[in-house]
């Protein structure tokens, strides 16, 4: 009798088009069995079911079997083949820049010497430019540690090419080498070498013994000079579209389904925004992209804040233009991070903004619904931007610190209390034995000789930390999630065969996976949609070739995505 009553009620619902019959069950498009790390409280389950691109069931195998209908449901049994887990995220990198350099510029290897640079690399770049009719010569990759005792000058570049502007950045992108024509075009000097600008705020213009520019540019002096390149030619909308497709291919092959681009206006135009929006509207985007609009210390802040806010017009389903990127300082190892105590030679590093300015920028950005994404390395710089976030920002905006090298102990709790996020280079938590000795020889402030990028301290203090790679500024590090995971767990990059680095800050496998998945989703404000295996979320997941939760630590780096799924559809398959 009870069943008849229920069916009578359901028949009314059926007439409204909500059900088909009282015995119906939902048929899934896809069901997956295996060891599944959900990233929800480190839970491991046996199965999930996917319908219309979203998880409709997460739990045991028996429960998932109810969603299988022969001939209609694809079933993947990944039991004992590896691990199933959410798609990974990259909280800060520069993939479009990396691919643009390959297309329109010159790649300089981390190992290349100054001699090879001048005799082979620059001449080849000049020939390429003249053969293609390029209006600028651009590139990236030289190593400061290799070049610093034999730094090429503008005169040496002029001897190779004096009729096309040259700008060649180092591997971090924080320093550059320019020929005379580039410096003239930027208004830094006259054609006869007379100095017109002694400094650019937040940067350094290198000077020769005679007081004329030597072609070396540091921090914001380089950014300012780059703005005078023919950037629309270097990074046109067509090039932007091609680089976005290449970016997607690499991301999916490595297991990334979320990505926040760390400097979307590197070429001083909005072509990444336009290309991404068009790509998504065409149905060709298979990852979620966050974009940033950078404000540099030499720019008009209010004018740029207006542009930052207006960039939201490029938003689409999978494109989130919600971030403002700013630089607080440089990098600690080369001596431009804003630190305390002082460097061995008595300087404190480079700082680009006062605390009052940062507070004002944060207030104005957050009021416009824009999150601040701040490059900061030194502990003194961290303290300054944390103060600005607290005094000027809104806690719900998840204002973020990027690449952090050092933190005052008392600042961890302040960051947690005010919902300040960190996206950390877990892949940099390693150094070769030679570089460890280099740092211990007195190139960094006292007390930092055997330290670098915190990890465990964030988890211990309740600070949300996500992982980033900063590609292509890798400093000899890998880019894929599982090599990064191994470094975060062991403090060693396997090919280096080095001593573990700063073992007090190493984290567990589960914490590393959190930083690579759900924490990136939180950083990008999409944790209710992605970042974990949970009913109602989009089915973005990986089939991983190894169980990285239980395999030997030194084998974690061997893991690869056997397949990457985005919104329930396979978008990459490793056929090797």
Q: How many strands, what sense, and barrel or not for the largest sheet? A: 8 strands, parallel
Shape: globular
Helical proportion?
A: 25-40%
Low-pLDDT residue spans: 1-24
Tell how many strands the DSSP assignment holds: 22
Mean pLDDT: 94
Number of helices: 20
Largest sheet strand order: 6-13-14-15-16-17-18-19
CA gyration radius, whole angstroms = 26 Å
Q: Given the helix and strand composition, which structural class is it?
A: alpha/beta
Note down, in words, how this protein is organized.
The chain is built from 20 helices and 22 strands. It is of the alpha/beta class and 576 residues long. It has an eight-stranded parallel sheet with strand order 6-13-14-15-16-17-18-19. α3 (95-104) packs across α10 (237-254) and α10 crosses α11. The chain is globular and about 80 Å long. The chain starts with a helix and ends with a strand.
